[in-house]
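Comment thread on ticket #2218

A.B. wrote:
> Attaching the input chain for the structure job we discussed in standup.
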Amino acid sequence: MRGEAFNRITIVGLGLIGGSLGIAIRRKRLARTIVGCSRKPQTLRRAKRCGAIDAGTSNLRRAVAKADLVVLATPVETIVPLARRLLPAMRRGAILTDVGSTKGEIVRALERAVPDGVRYVGSHPLAGSEQRGIAAAQPRLFDRSVCVVTASSRTDPAALRVVTGFWRRLGCRVVTLEPRRHDFLLATVSHLPHLLAFCLTELADGQELSLAPRSFRDATRVAKSDPGLWEGILLGNRPALAQAIRRFDRRWRLLRGWLGRGNRSALRQFLISAKAKRDGLQDD
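C.D. wrote:
> Ran it. Output below, let me know if you need it in another format.
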């Protein structure tokens, strides 16, 4: 595909993901015009200065009225309410997607809410960090990252191809998953690790933290993430997260037993297995 893939893309929410998305869209020349929507005028000004958007507005319906693609890049608990407000203003033939870290409830709600002529496909780029706000926007945040695109029985195949192509052109490796499968997998590799990082950090007292080595800092880096944002993610994926916690607890109880009995052989095999899995992951 040559030239701009879209005439106009609107990004609602200009934090780390939304701001980085605008910069990446411009860098990859995926749209003739990038419109940003934010409640804060200073955010719109900063987004324009850093090249994330061409124009900005706080008027949600005006922001999406002429867009070919609308991306909701707001906290998970705001995605459905905002979508319901903007969907009536979207033009026929336009596509709505989001970047929410949970998908099951969001996809179910928005597939029911889209009017005739407008299509919705869920997305989740796995490219965030503990930083937040337009000031943290990065031009290459999506390079070589994974983006999950959701597909259900109600997903329009043509819209799915468009959204998949959009993320691929941004540099992502796209994985297509059913929404509930997405939530199950992310509970284990994203949501539970964040919860454990918060727990480990909260557990340590002041003297312990004063002695914290690099290993502790590496293991708990994501505990620097926005608590309000993660509160919404954790509560939004309660069933899958509860299942991941139960799976973790079974292994934790095994470890406690082995340590209590001094079972060196079982502990060694556990550590060897974990190391082999971790060695198979490619670090950035």
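A.B. wrote:
> Thanks. Noting for the ticket: The chain has twelve helices and nine strands.
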